[in-house]
Design brief:
It contains 6 helices and 7 strands; from the N terminus they run H-H-H-H-E-H-E-E-H-E-E-E-E. It has a 7-stranded mixed sheet, with helices on one face. Helix 2 packs antiparallel against helix 3. Keywords: Membrane, Transmembrane, Transmembrane helix.
Length: about 280
Protein backbone atom coordinates (compact mmCIF):
# COMPACT_ATOMS: atom_id res chain seq x y z
CA UNK A 1 0.00 0.00 0.00
CA UNK A 2 2.88 2.39 0.58
CA UNK A 3 3.47 2.57 -3.19
CA UNK A 4 -0.17 3.23 -4.16
CA UNK A 5 -0.04 6.94 -3.34
CA UNK A 6 3.19 7.45 -5.33
CA UNK A 7 1.75 5.66 -8.34
CA UNK A 8 -1.50 7.64 -8.14
CA UNK A 9 0.33 10.97 -7.87
CA UNK A 10 2.58 10.04 -10.81
CA UNK A 11 -0.40 9.19 -13.03
CA UNK A 12 -2.24 12.41 -12.10
CA UNK A 13 0.88 14.51 -12.75
CA UNK A 14 1.45 12.86 -16.14
CA UNK A 15 -2.18 13.37 -17.18
CA UNK A 16 -2.22 17.05 -16.18
CA UNK A 17 1.14 17.68 -17.85
CA UNK A 18 -0.03 15.99 -21.05
CA UNK A 19 -3.20 18.11 -21.11
CA UNK A 20 -1.07 21.21 -20.58
CA UNK A 21 1.11 20.29 -23.54
CA UNK A 22 -1.93 19.62 -25.72
CA UNK A 23 -3.27 23.09 -24.93
CA UNK A 24 0.17 24.68 -25.31
CA UNK A 25 0.28 23.53 -28.91
CA UNK A 26 -2.05 26.42 -29.77
CA UNK A 27 0.22 28.94 -28.04
CA UNK A 28 2.52 31.06 -30.16
CA UNK A 29 5.43 32.71 -28.31
CA UNK A 30 5.76 36.51 -28.51
CA UNK A 31 9.32 36.09 -29.82
CA UNK A 32 10.50 33.18 -32.02
CA UNK A 33 12.20 30.38 -30.13
CA UNK A 34 15.71 29.55 -31.43
CA UNK A 35 16.57 26.70 -33.79
CA UNK A 36 14.21 25.15 -36.25
CA UNK A 37 13.68 22.73 -39.10
CA UNK A 38 16.92 20.88 -39.68
CA UNK A 39 18.67 22.89 -36.92
CA UNK A 40 18.70 26.09 -38.95
CA UNK A 41 17.30 29.50 -38.00
CA UNK A 42 15.06 29.57 -41.08
CA UNK A 43 12.08 28.22 -39.16
CA UNK A 44 11.25 28.21 -35.46
CA UNK A 45 9.91 25.72 -32.97
CA UNK A 46 6.72 26.49 -31.09
CA UNK A 47 6.44 26.01 -27.33
CA UNK A 48 4.72 22.65 -27.98
CA UNK A 49 7.80 21.37 -29.82
CA UNK A 50 9.98 22.02 -26.75
CA UNK A 51 7.48 20.50 -24.31
CA UNK A 52 6.92 17.48 -26.52
CA UNK A 53 10.66 16.92 -26.84
CA UNK A 54 11.10 17.24 -23.08
CA UNK A 55 8.41 14.60 -22.48
CA UNK A 56 10.09 12.20 -24.90
CA UNK A 57 13.43 12.67 -23.15
CA UNK A 58 11.94 12.13 -19.68
CA UNK A 59 10.16 8.94 -20.77
CA UNK A 60 13.32 7.51 -22.34
CA UNK A 61 15.50 8.43 -19.35
CA UNK A 62 12.96 7.06 -16.86
CA UNK A 63 12.74 3.71 -18.63
CA UNK A 64 16.52 3.47 -18.97
CA UNK A 65 17.17 4.28 -15.31
CA UNK A 66 14.49 1.81 -14.13
CA UNK A 67 16.01 -1.03 -16.13
CA UNK A 68 19.52 -0.15 -14.94
CA UNK A 69 18.43 -0.12 -11.29
CA UNK A 70 16.68 -3.49 -11.75
CA UNK A 71 19.89 -4.98 -13.18
CA UNK A 72 21.92 -3.60 -10.28
CA UNK A 73 19.40 -5.03 -7.79
CA UNK A 74 19.54 -8.43 -9.45
CA UNK A 75 23.33 -8.43 -9.32
CA UNK A 76 23.28 -7.51 -5.61
CA UNK A 77 20.74 -10.25 -4.91
CA UNK A 78 22.97 -12.89 -6.51
CA UNK A 79 26.07 -11.56 -4.73
CA UNK A 80 24.30 -11.37 -1.35
CA UNK A 81 24.75 -15.10 -0.72
CA UNK A 82 23.07 -16.07 2.52
CA UNK A 83 22.96 -12.58 4.05
CA UNK A 84 19.22 -11.92 4.67
CA UNK A 85 19.52 -8.14 5.03
CA UNK A 86 21.48 -7.79 1.78
CA UNK A 87 18.95 -9.91 -0.08
CA UNK A 88 16.07 -7.86 1.33
CA UNK A 89 17.73 -4.63 0.19
CA UNK A 90 18.25 -6.09 -3.28
CA UNK A 91 14.59 -7.17 -3.45
CA UNK A 92 13.43 -3.68 -2.51
CA UNK A 93 15.66 -2.13 -5.15
CA UNK A 94 14.27 -4.46 -7.83
CA UNK A 95 10.69 -3.77 -6.70
CA UNK A 96 11.24 -0.01 -6.79
CA UNK A 97 12.73 -0.30 -10.28
CA UNK A 98 9.71 -2.27 -11.50
CA UNK A 99 7.35 0.31 -10.00
CA UNK A 100 9.29 3.08 -11.70
CA UNK A 101 9.18 1.24 -15.03
CA UNK A 102 5.42 0.76 -14.59
CA UNK A 103 5.00 4.51 -14.03
CA UNK A 104 7.00 5.28 -17.16
CA UNK A 105 5.01 2.86 -19.31
CA UNK A 106 1.73 4.18 -17.86
CA UNK A 107 2.85 7.72 -18.65
CA UNK A 108 3.64 6.65 -22.21
CA UNK A 109 0.16 5.16 -22.66
CA UNK A 110 -1.55 8.23 -21.23
CA UNK A 111 0.44 10.65 -23.40
CA UNK A 112 -0.13 8.51 -26.48
CA UNK A 113 -3.87 8.67 -25.79
CA UNK A 114 -3.76 12.48 -25.45
CA UNK A 115 -1.65 13.05 -28.58
CA UNK A 116 0.41 10.36 -30.39
CA UNK A 117 2.79 13.06 -31.61
CA UNK A 118 4.08 13.52 -28.05
CA UNK A 119 5.67 10.06 -27.98
CA UNK A 120 7.08 9.81 -31.49
CA UNK A 121 10.84 9.31 -31.39
CA UNK A 122 13.19 10.26 -34.21
CA UNK A 123 16.93 9.96 -33.63
CA UNK A 124 17.98 10.34 -37.27
CA UNK A 125 20.92 12.68 -37.79
CA UNK A 126 22.40 14.14 -40.96
CA UNK A 127 25.79 12.72 -42.06
CA UNK A 128 28.82 14.29 -40.37
CA UNK A 129 31.35 16.08 -42.53
CA UNK A 130 29.20 16.26 -45.65
CA UNK A 131 27.15 19.00 -47.20
CA UNK A 132 23.41 18.76 -46.39
CA UNK A 133 22.61 18.62 -50.11
CA UNK A 134 25.72 16.69 -51.23
CA UNK A 135 23.67 13.70 -52.33
CA UNK A 136 21.46 15.75 -54.65
CA UNK A 137 23.10 18.89 -55.98
CA UNK A 138 26.67 20.26 -55.67
CA UNK A 139 27.07 23.58 -53.87
CA UNK A 140 27.68 25.81 -56.86
CA UNK A 141 25.87 28.95 -57.98
CA UNK A 142 24.25 27.38 -61.02
CA UNK A 143 21.49 29.29 -62.81
CA UNK A 144 18.00 28.59 -61.47
CA UNK A 145 15.15 28.50 -64.03
CA UNK A 146 12.66 31.36 -64.25
CA UNK A 147 9.31 30.96 -62.51
CA UNK A 148 7.38 33.68 -64.38
CA UNK A 149 4.71 31.21 -65.57
CA UNK A 150 3.93 29.94 -62.08
CA UNK A 151 3.96 33.46 -60.63
CA UNK A 152 1.52 34.61 -63.30
CA UNK A 153 -0.95 31.86 -62.37
CA UNK A 154 -0.82 32.90 -58.72
CA UNK A 155 -0.93 36.61 -59.54
CA UNK A 156 -4.20 36.08 -61.42
CA UNK A 157 -5.82 35.69 -57.99
CA UNK A 158 -3.69 38.38 -56.30
CA UNK A 159 -1.50 35.77 -54.58
CA UNK A 160 1.95 37.26 -53.98
CA UNK A 161 5.34 35.53 -53.88
CA UNK A 162 8.06 37.12 -51.79
CA UNK A 163 11.43 36.25 -50.26
CA UNK A 164 12.68 36.96 -46.77
CA UNK A 165 14.51 40.10 -47.88
CA UNK A 166 13.47 40.68 -51.47
CA UNK A 167 10.45 40.22 -53.70
CA UNK A 168 12.49 38.95 -56.63
CA UNK A 169 12.66 35.31 -57.67
CA UNK A 170 15.75 33.15 -57.22
CA UNK A 171 18.29 33.57 -60.02
CA UNK A 172 20.87 31.00 -58.92
CA UNK A 173 21.01 27.91 -56.74
CA UNK A 174 22.12 28.70 -53.14
CA UNK A 175 21.06 32.34 -53.49
CA UNK A 176 19.88 33.68 -50.13
CA UNK A 177 16.78 35.68 -49.26
CA UNK A 178 14.73 34.67 -52.30
CA UNK A 179 11.67 32.56 -53.05
CA UNK A 180 10.96 30.54 -56.18
CA UNK A 181 7.84 28.73 -57.36
CA UNK A 182 9.54 27.18 -60.40
CA UNK A 183 7.76 23.89 -61.20
CA UNK A 184 5.67 24.16 -58.04
CA UNK A 185 3.32 21.15 -57.98
CA UNK A 186 -0.04 21.61 -59.66
CA UNK A 187 -1.73 20.55 -56.42
CA UNK A 188 -0.19 23.51 -54.59
CA UNK A 189 -1.10 26.02 -57.30
CA UNK A 190 -4.69 24.83 -57.58
CA UNK A 191 -4.92 24.61 -53.79
CA UNK A 192 -3.76 28.21 -53.33
CA UNK A 193 -6.10 29.48 -56.06
CA UNK A 194 -9.13 27.69 -54.61
CA UNK A 195 -8.19 28.87 -51.10
CA UNK A 196 -8.20 32.45 -52.34
CA UNK A 197 -11.55 31.95 -54.11
CA UNK A 198 -13.09 30.66 -50.87
CA UNK A 199 -11.67 33.55 -48.81
CA UNK A 200 -11.45 36.75 -50.84
CA UNK A 201 -10.41 38.75 -47.76
CA UNK A 202 -7.46 36.43 -47.09
CA UNK A 203 -4.07 37.92 -47.96
CA UNK A 204 -2.06 34.98 -49.30
CA UNK A 205 1.70 35.50 -49.62
CA UNK A 206 3.99 32.60 -50.56
CA UNK A 207 7.25 32.85 -48.58
CA UNK A 208 8.66 29.40 -49.37
CA UNK A 209 8.46 27.46 -52.60
CA UNK A 210 10.84 25.13 -54.43
CA UNK A 211 14.16 26.73 -53.36
CA UNK A 212 15.22 23.53 -51.58
CA UNK A 213 18.63 24.84 -50.48
CA UNK A 214 17.00 27.32 -48.08
CA UNK A 215 15.20 24.58 -46.14
CA UNK A 216 16.10 21.45 -44.16
CA UNK A 217 18.15 18.49 -45.33
CA UNK A 218 15.25 16.28 -46.38
CA UNK A 219 12.90 19.11 -47.31
CA UNK A 220 9.88 18.61 -49.57
CA UNK A 221 10.37 22.14 -50.94
CA UNK A 222 11.45 20.88 -54.37
CA UNK A 223 10.25 21.20 -57.97
CA UNK A 224 7.30 18.90 -58.59
CA UNK A 225 6.14 18.85 -54.96
CA UNK A 226 2.98 20.56 -53.75
CA UNK A 227 4.48 22.04 -50.58
CA UNK A 228 4.62 25.78 -49.83
CA UNK A 229 5.10 28.17 -46.94
CA UNK A 230 2.65 31.06 -46.67
CA UNK A 231 2.75 34.13 -44.44
CA UNK A 232 0.55 34.10 -41.34
CA UNK A 233 0.11 37.87 -41.13
CA UNK A 234 -3.49 37.79 -42.39
CA UNK A 235 -6.03 37.38 -39.58
CA UNK A 236 -8.70 36.33 -42.08
CA UNK A 237 -6.42 33.62 -43.45
CA UNK A 238 -5.51 32.39 -39.96
CA UNK A 239 -9.19 32.23 -39.02
CA UNK A 240 -9.98 30.33 -42.20
CA UNK A 241 -7.24 27.75 -41.57
CA UNK A 242 -8.07 27.29 -37.89
CA UNK A 243 -11.70 26.62 -38.82
CA UNK A 244 -10.46 23.27 -40.09
CA UNK A 245 -9.90 20.13 -38.03
CA UNK A 246 -7.06 20.40 -35.53
CA UNK A 247 -4.87 17.29 -35.65
CA UNK A 248 -2.28 18.29 -33.06
CA UNK A 249 1.41 17.74 -33.76
CA UNK A 250 1.98 15.02 -36.35
CA UNK A 251 4.66 14.06 -38.84
CA UNK A 252 2.88 13.47 -42.14
CA UNK A 253 3.51 17.08 -43.24
CA UNK A 254 5.61 18.73 -40.52
CA UNK A 255 6.14 17.99 -36.82
CA UNK A 256 7.12 21.58 -35.96
CA UNK A 257 3.65 22.73 -34.96
CA UNK A 258 -0.08 22.04 -34.80
CA UNK A 259 -1.61 20.77 -38.05
CA UNK A 260 -5.06 21.76 -39.33
CA UNK A 261 -6.85 19.87 -42.09
CA UNK A 262 -9.00 21.85 -44.50
CA UNK A 263 -11.49 20.11 -46.76
CA UNK A 264 -13.23 21.55 -49.79
CA UNK A 265 -11.61 24.65 -51.39
CA UNK A 266 -7.93 24.85 -50.42
CA UNK A 267 -8.00 21.29 -49.06
CA UNK A 268 -4.70 20.28 -47.46
CA UNK A 269 -2.66 20.15 -44.26
CA UNK A 270 -1.70 23.53 -42.76
CA UNK A 271 0.97 23.38 -40.04
CA UNK A 272 1.55 26.36 -37.76
CA UNK A 273 5.35 26.66 -37.65
CA UNK A 274 5.35 29.87 -35.63
CA UNK A 275 6.19 32.56 -38.18
CA UNK A 276 4.42 31.01 -41.18
CA UNK A 277 2.09 28.23 -42.32
CA UNK A 278 3.77 25.15 -43.81
CA UNK A 279 1.22 23.69 -46.26
CA UNK A 280 1.05 20.26 -47.87
CA UNK A 281 -1.55 20.00 -50.65
Amino acid sequence: MKYVLSIFIGIIFTTLFGVFVAHAQNYTPLAPLPLGEGGTPLTTYTISSYLGGMLKLLIALGAGVSILVAIIGGTQYVAAGIAPSAKQDAKERILNALIGLTLVLTSYLILNSINPGLVQFNFSLPPIGTSPMATTTPIVAEPWPDDASERAQLASKNIMVTGTKTSTTCKTIWEKGCTSVYQLGSGAISGLLSLKDSCLSCAIVVTGGTEYWSHSVNTAHRPGNSVVDIDNGSSALNQKIRSGTSLGVQSSCSSLGVAYRLTGPGAGLYVDEGNHWHVCY
